[in-house]
């Protein structure tokens, strides 16, 4: 090799290496947008691990899964990383929920926005506003749908995977002294409307039964907490949940685990509703369990081959088509 050729080769080599090692150059096949809510500081550590496992894939996360503005900003960040498809993964755990209904609306899967609000105690009574971002109230025509030049794919929630019951069972058995003589309770944040609550309860009861079987517990049950509901709904929830807890206590020990990515918010609402006696509480949510990370990585790869999910898009006049 001549001296001039050697100099040219050495000069070009770093450029070639950069084109493979620099994630900002060239178009990536897809990016991942994780729709988180109530995750807390531990999520940053989890997110770092996910990014290391999905090396070469752009990964972004937004807080408050049903916030269209936050999701749009996440999409815009991925646009800047030149992805041709975005795989959105919700950390909402239950498919039959107001949060997922609103996410489906934002992604153009659902025709109408959710109207999850407290059932009216009397005509004309205004909804109670909640401080919790993940407890949604939507009125009027609903928020604007998401805009993206890249294809959008929305994955299933983790309740469609055995990983959810596996994680919850592990949390519960860590608290139990003798599972065969104890009951396990799943505690989750439920929809505001009573109609939505009934659907949610049916879905969560099925998960509680799976956790009971996996952990070998005497019985599986659910308790729900709600944010921003009316006084009458709160009294009814408290009475029903107290009756459930009282019945379980009379038959033996009781362990309770949060049905949430992070258990702090659910724990606060549970303590406000029922106090802290009569059950052993594991405040850990799903975050921190490696099976959650494994599920996110697995479902993102599987969904990366799916087509754009959008059936409805906002037109220039703000309607949909």
How does this model look, in words?
The protein is of the alpha/beta class and 321 residues long. The chain folds into two domains: 14-158 and 290-303, Rossmann fold (3-Layer(aba) Sandwich), CATH 3.40.50; 162-281, 3-Layer(aba) Sandwich (Rossmann fold). Helix content is 42%, strand content 14%. The protein has nine helices and eight strands. It has helices at residues 3-21, 42-53, 68-79, 98-106, 162-175, 194-215, 231-251, 264-274, 290-303; strands at residues 31-36, 58-63, 85-90, 151-154, 182-189, 219-225, 253-258, 280-281. Strand 1, helix 2 (42-53) and strand 2 (58-63) form a beta-alpha-beta unit. The chain starts with a helix and ends in an 18-residue tail after the last helix.
Low-confidence stretches: 1-25, 121-140, 316-321
Q: Beta fraction of the residues?
A: 5-15%
| H and E order | HEHEHEHEHEHEHEHEH
Number of helices: 9
How confident overall, as mean pLDDT? Answer: 84
Characterize the biggest β-sheet.
4 strands, parallel
Per DSSP E runs of 2 or more residues, the count of β-strands stands at 8
Query: Strand sequence of the main sheet, in spatial order?
Result: 2-1-3-4
Q: Report the radius of gyration as a whole number of Å.
A: 23 Å
Structurally, the number of domains stands at 2
What portion of residues is helical? 40-55%
CATH fold name of the largest domain = Rossmann fold
Envelope shape: globular
